[in-house]
Structures are given as structure tokens and as C-alpha cells.
């Protein structure tokens, strides 16, 4: 937990330019700019947005990203990369995932489940 907090204080995640205009660009180049604050998102919407965040991560080969992909085993990411992806998911969905829960998220499956089961109220 202390490591994650130290990383969160000093980490900057690079943003990829996808050739989109300013109104289309969200965190990490995501095309979607809406958040889960408005209404409970469908599972499909959560899956799409989580996959977009992971595909946008600089060290990830987008062709390998699926809803079942494991960050370390399948994508070869280390624990710091996993923390960065979880932070990017928090930004995308305007969530604050408690450290205890964030430490468990090591795959797209777990990220999707967490986001889908923790909608934000307006």
C-alpha cells in the first residue's frame, strides 16, 4: 500500500495522440468522454472502456488485449505498470478504488468486474 501511495504521488502517465480533436480526447486518448456518474453503465460499455484504457497503455500491444487478459502473465507488465493501468481506469471512470481493492486488480476481468459493480452516483 505504501508503495502504491508513493507511486501515485509522483507518477505521470503519457498520453498518446490519436489524431483526434480536443473534444474527442479523454484520459490516455480514450474517445469516450462520459463517465459512470450519470447512469449505471452497461457491462458492454464498461468492457469497451476498460479495454480502451488498457490498449492505450504505451507498453501494451493492443492486439493482445481481450476482456480475459492478465496484465502480467499475458501482457508482460510488471507491478508498477499494473498500478498505472488501475490509476488510468480510476481516471476513466471517475472512481477512487481503495488500495486494498486496487491491489487485487491484475487483469481486465477483475477491472471490469470492479467498475461494473461499483457505479458512482450523481
From TrEMBL:
Signal sequence, start to end: none
Record's keyword annotation contains Electron transport: yes
Domain Carrier: 44-119
Name listed for the protein in its UniProt record: Acyl carrier protein
PROSITE patterns the UniProt entry points to: CARRIER (PS50075), PHOSPHOPANTETHEINE (PS00012)
The gene coding this protein: LOC104784875
Family statement: Belongs to the acyl carrier protein (ACP) family.
Classification via Pfam families: PP-binding (PF00550)
InterPro entries with a match to the protein in the record: ACP, ACP-like_sf, PP-bd_ACP, Ppantetheine_attach_site
UniProt keyword list: Electron transport, Fatty acid biosynthesis, Fatty acid metabolism, Lipid biosynthesis, Lipid metabolism, Mitochondrion, Phosphopantetheine, Phosphoprotein, Transit peptide, Transport
Subcellular location: Mitochondrion
Amino acid at each position: 500500500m505504501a508503495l502504491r501511495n508513493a507511486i501515485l504521488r509522483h507518477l505521470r502517465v503519457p498520453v498518446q495522440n490519436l489524431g483526434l480533436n480536443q473534444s474527442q480526447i479523454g484520459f490516455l486518448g480514450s474517445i469516450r468522454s462520459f463517465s459512470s456518474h450519470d447512469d449505471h453503465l452497461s457491462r458492454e460499455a464498461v468492457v469497451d472502456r476498460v479495454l480502451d484504457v488498457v490498449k492505450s497503455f504505451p507498453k501494451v500491444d493492443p492486439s493482445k488485449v481481450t476482456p480475459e487478459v492478465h496484465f502480467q502473465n499475458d501482457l508482460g507488465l510488471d507491478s508498477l505498470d499494473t498500478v498505472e493501468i488501475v490509476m488510468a481506469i480510476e481516471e476513466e471512470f471517475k472512481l477512487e478504488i481503495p488500495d486494498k481493492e486496487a491491489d487485487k486488480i491484475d487483469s481486465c476481468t477483475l477491472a471490469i468486474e470492479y467498475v461494473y459493480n461499483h457505479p458512482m452516483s450523481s
